[in-house]
Amino acid sequence: RSIDPTSLNRQGEDVGTRYRTGVYFTSDEDRVLFEALFEKVKATLDQPLVVELEPLQNFYPAEDYHQDYLDKHPEGYCHLPWSLMQFAKEANASDSQERKPATEPPMSTHKKSRKASRIVREKEVVSKMIALYCRHKLGMKEMNEEYRALEEYAHKRLSCCKFGEKKPACKKCPIHCYKPSMREEIRKIMRWAGPRMLFYDPIAALRHLLNR
Q: Among 5, 90, 163, 170, which is 20 to 30 Å from 23 by CA?
């Protein structure tokens, strides 16, 4: 429910080798169990299973600021729906302190409180458009350094926007903060990816159109 087992080095709009999905075992007993499970999963797929199965080599806990990241940064991005993350949290919680009380507000309250800012939403749309352009127009398996740099540049421009949440559509903005070369490149991508976003992420596409 949380990954696409046929997607190599990609989950949602996150692309790169660091997003490779894997299962890592620490004993031969586990390896046998996982191999049997992988065979069952393969039988249900019409594409190759690309989740790697390897012995565990290294494990490092994430830094403190990455622990419970979306609890600390509710405006952050994740390809998983909030309801699925909440399901996993409750499933793994202990019966004592971590399990949420029955009197907790309904899920809709969480969704409302997690509404992302306009700047965050625009960053997500830009990233999705660039990823879509690279993958389907240029045939790249993952974004190269050139388009990573463009994505980073666009995100910085949004972070520094003097209008903040009242930001106008870029074509109506009186400032035009992009370098000419970067502006032309992002325009090219948006002209190609914009209409196609309606098929790949219709909600994000409609939000983008309404904000223009």
A: 90
